[in-house]
Amino acid sequence: MDRRRCIIGQSGGPTVAINATLAGVIKAARQNGFDAIYGMVNGIQGFLENQMIDLIPLCTEEKMEQLIHTPAMYLGSCRFKIADNDVETKNKIFENLERIHITDVFYIGGNDSMDTVQKLSAHAAVTGSPIRFIGIPKTIDNDLEHAYYIPGYPSACQYVATTMLEIAHDAAIYPGHSVTIVEIMGRDAGWLAASASLVNQDGDQMVDLIYLPEVSFHMEDFISRVKTLLLEKQHIIVAVSEGIRDNAGQYIASPTGYVKDAFGNCSRSGCAAQLKQRLETAVNCKIRSIELNVLQRNAGHLANEYDLQNAVRIGETAVQYAMELETGIFVGSRYDAEYGLLFTKENISEVSNKVRAFPGEWIDRDQCQIKNDYIDYVRVLLAEDGMIHLPEYLRRES
Amino acid sequence: MDRRRCIIGQSGGPTVAINATLAGVIKAARQNGFDAIYGMVNGIQGFLENQMIDLIPLCTEEKMEQLIHTPAMYLGSCRFKIADNDVETKNKIFENLERIHITDVFYIGGNDSMDTVQKLSAHAAVTGSPIRFIGIPKTIDNDLEHAYYIPGYPSACQYVATTMLEIAHDAAIYPGHSVTIVEIMGRDAGWLAASASLVNQDGDQMVDLIYLPEVSFHMEDFISRVKTLLLEKQHIIVAVSEGIRDNAGQYIASPTGYVKDAFGNCSRSGCAAQLKQRLETAVNCKIRSIELNVLQRNAGHLANEYDLQNAVRIGETAVQYAMELETGIFVGSRYDAEYGLLFTKENISEVSNKVRAFPGEWIDRDQCQIKNDYIDYVRVLLAEDGMIHLPEYLRRES
């Protein structure tokens, strides 16, 4: 066998499972006899300045276990976009790779990071470089194409569902009426906000209204639904995706919470605060807005073990594809009723810069709820036994 | 023995341990042969309208275990203040108690709830009623007098410390500089914000600046400290108590986050957002503000087991005092080097409506840090072995 030397990068926003994928790549590269295993510090951006570390010292059982259970990104991240015509940057990256005799590059990230993998593998094809590039998905947004799901998403769901349950218990203790609006991450797709539907107790749905970016948001309709609900029950819980937009495609979040990154993506906050403000002029009760903020993507203490195991497996699968001398690919996934979650080989150009929306047919628009198809979908992600395990808190029968 | 019949109420803000205390009272009352064990629904406010339930059906091992591990308040809460001269309300409460032949009232709450216990026990003394009243403390604020600590506080510390650690990991992944400002509950006392000092890794303090209400806040000094820190390190983490005030005693939080309850207490939010806004005009880097919001007081999934055990014990101790025919008392606590945490009998008038500030001598004003005396203090609250257990996440050596 030729001598194999790899480098691994992490890019985009953090999740609790991306280090588990890193551990999977390291383990499998070691087992497959790679001579060198490097890590890019701060992804392709740091690597352009030759920032990298040797990952071989991590190859002890103890360190690997610890890495698997560490949230965020051990190697650091970046949000760096290579322009199509920026040959200089591409050449610089290849020079840096060649200097340390890299044969395989593994890049773990979301939609935008896959754009980097696509551009570099295309550049290799044009220039005749033998360096191979494999993309491995991570994003709590769960919005990549050709994937049944993306590692890190199940843990984020577990965080959102557990936290929503505790928020509902918190709200329920006070006499009088209240509305609690919880803002959940999801720039363009409502996958994570949909997990609020997992919160039920003794058969009762605990979250009353769920709003995703896939359905345009009507403020007056929202206010009238809350008013109607307040006639029936004391405490209303609303889950809302940060990316909800009105009919005209305008974000509901206040424009002050607007930040553009290098990919032109807007990260925004404040739509729950906005709904609270509007609601205060319409109903006369206690209204609270809560942003789950970065906690939802990085709560290592609530990481789902099955998610972490699968995140390791997807990293190992990437190395397996590298051993088959693949390049310009992405590790997708599908669900098989007999075999469970399976990882699949996908062409990188089929996934980069694309967003997989939450399926419209799983949204109950009449009730602002999520249909049970979603529960069936998510069940297989959260545990080997296909059960959703949330704390079982005691409720007073009233 | 006379026939004993008790009723238990919960009042004030939720914690993860207040139901464990309820369970302790129920268990001990059952063991001591109480004929009836009732619960007030929504505290004294609901009880005025005869809202109560029979708690005997909870007396199974399974339900007790579940109750101990359920956050918030099983019985519901209220924020209801009995006016000094409101004899009508007091008489109504006694009528309702006499109708169901109550001999002992247990009221679990914070400073304000102890005011209720004091007024009702004083009223009993004046009217010659034999009904006894015992106050049992709960508050994540940890700010009651004559107590070494208050149940629920250790779990809230565990939540804050774990979350701060994860927020620090989240912030650390990006290249460039950043400041993350985290707002922690604590209206008048900085006990909970101080727990941000528990977050260190490999000997490094992870939270750079900690601001408590006990020290007046100077905006210019804050900005200049952040500027200096940014010369030394990339990512700055700031913990700030919601109740910080300037030299003139004015809250830093924006006035829009201002709500008054029946006790005249102001619950406020938004001081982290305020600091972010001011900092944005002074330093040129990414600045994020995060409110831990209700999650910090009600995160049952991160409840500290030792805290819950002690919360059960304090409930049992209250019943023991009732068996000694005490009234107008409060269950305090002290720490004994040999015997550990001990519960003590305190006169209710010594605790109601008083706030125990975070000790000034534990604050390092020069560094905006908390001294190790606090670590020694909190150590015995979080585990029987006196160790603080936080997740051990892997950090890259750079």
Structure report:
Two copies of one chain form a homodimer. Chain A has helices spanning 18-31, 43-48, 61-68, 87-99, 111-127, 153-172, 191-194, 219-232, 271-280, 295-298, 305-323, 372-382, and strands at residues 5-10, 36-40, 52-54, 104-109, 132-137, 178-184, 200-201, 204-205, 209-211, 235-241, 259-260, 266-267, 286-291, 329-336, 340-347, 363-364, 369-370. In chain A, helix 1 packs antiparallel against helix 3 (61-68) and helix 1 (18-31) crosses helix 11 (305-323). In chain A, the strands form five sheets. A seven-stranded mixed sheet of chain A has the order 3-2-1-4-5-14-15, sandwiched between helices. Chain A has a four-stranded parallel sheet with strand order 9-10-6-13, sandwiched between helices. A two-stranded antiparallel ribbon of chain A has the order 7-8. The mean pLDDT of chain A is 93. The first copy, chain A, has 398 residues and is of the alpha/beta class. The termini of chain A are far apart. Chain A has twelve helices and 17 strands. In chain A, helix 1 links the parallel strand 1 and strand 2. Chains A and B meet through helix 3, helix 6, strand 13 and helix 10 of A and helix 3, helix 6, strand 13 and helix 10 of B.
β-strand percent of chain A reads 15-25%
Count the DSSP helices of chain A: 12
* Helix and strand sequence of chain A: EHEHEHHEHEHEHEEEHEEEHEHHEEEEH
Hey, which two chains have the biggest interface? A-B, 52 and 51 residues
Oligomeric grouping of the chains: homodimer
- Globally, the shape of chain A reads elongated
Integer-rounded radius of gyration of chain A: 22 Å
Q: What proportion of the residues of chain A is helical, as a percent range?
A: 25-40%
- Indicate the low-confidence ranges of chain A by residue numbers: none
